[in-house]
Amino acid sequence: MWIYLSVLAVTLAVLWVRKRYSYWKERGIPYSEPSFPAGNIRGMGRTEHLSTMMQRCYKDLKGKGPIGGIFFFINPVALAMDLDLIKNVLVKDFQYCHDRSLYYNEKDDPLSAHLLTMEGTKWKNLRAKLTPTFTSGKMKMMFPTIITVAEDFSKLMKSDASKNREIEMKEILARFTTDVIGNCAFGLECNSLHDPEAEFRRMGRKIFAVPKGRLLKFFIAQQFRSVARSLGIRLTDKDVSDFFLGAVKDTVKYREENKIERNDFMSLLLKLKNAEPLEDGNAHNIDPMSVEEIAAQAFVFFAAGFETSSTAMSYCLFELAQNIDLQNKARKCVTDAIKKHGSMTYEATQDMSYIDQCINESLRKYPPLSNLIRAVSMDYKLPNSDVVLQQGSTLIVPVYAIHHDPEYYPDPERYDPERFAPDQVAKRNPYTFLPFGEGPRICIGMRFGMMQARVGLAYLLKDFKFTLSNKTPVPLKISPRTPIYTSEGGLWMKVEQL
To answer: Could you give the C-alpha distances from 455 to 184, 346, 452, 462, in angstroms and in order?
Structure first.
């Protein structure tokens, strides 16, 4: 009897999986053939980064329709292929796809409930609260803090360059951005530049460390979110959570008891905690934020800000070290701007247009977030099509694949900042460049990230010449285990002080 029941159970399971894998075929939508159990993401976390998996599906499905069908495990996922559709999803028809479909657990893992992951009305209210903290005026207000850290960074580089012929730049750039974000997000002197094992740097490493099985845990929680929440699954390590919650609580207590005000992100968050207006005469009719809520925002600002900016600068230096003519042109851009404005002022950095071109080209070639994920919140009939994406579906915009599509960027593996000269940008569909996303859920910290990267590169290029060490592989080896598009190993460079 048990044998028959077992055979029946296995047969039903096989038929159910086959039914799941026929999802796109039944709807007449072209799809990439999946394999059980991983679907189209076999090898993820072990041999291949998700970006290249999505690029392979994109190449396979391009030209066959506005979307293509793929599978994450047994779950059908739509891959957006058409730029007009991408514009509709991210902007025009935002009401159908307003959530990122990222797992969070507000009850068991409070730091996971931040602007990046929150959904629906909660996200909308939170975005309204935080938007005034990232205006150009607020960026200018935080600029002196960045310059103070950059000066310290420059002194350390000069000291290291005088002692060593070769410097590992990836780690030192991460320490620079850790100190910048730690100062701006928490108002604390992190001291990572002088102590690689400082607590903030140690915790920063831990946020993006991916022990064996963690990426799989993330994707399973992502695909089965309700079950994961009911099981109390948390993706933030407890010691990381305890550290950042403690840092915020201590900072809040100290500042409120001593009436301390600084020109940083934490001061703005404290105003939101107490429901104070962020702009003169512009009061918010929004409930005050709890300490846990502001801790979550400070945490994501720190995590996203230090890692994405440091990797963008690393990739930019990697390319400029191989193209000395481009490096010299970027250096001249920096020195001309400083000469024009008298010093490294906010206005001077805004004048470094070629540095922006270099950063943008590195963001094109190595986008930190290689895919944008959206959840379909209600049945969505694709414009000019009979295709309907059902409520609860997941849609992916394959950013890395689009950035490497030769139709939009000829010879896409070549690093060429001239692609982002104003006349070239004007000729190109804006939805071919999406390192920060687009629409209402565009990265809220985009201005800050660009300012931080611009300042860091300006300080490096004005005083040093960079060439690659033999220790650095070409091309770089991309880690398959991290959600951020980052390289494995160090970025060793020969550094010559000018």
So the answer is: 15, 9, 5, 11
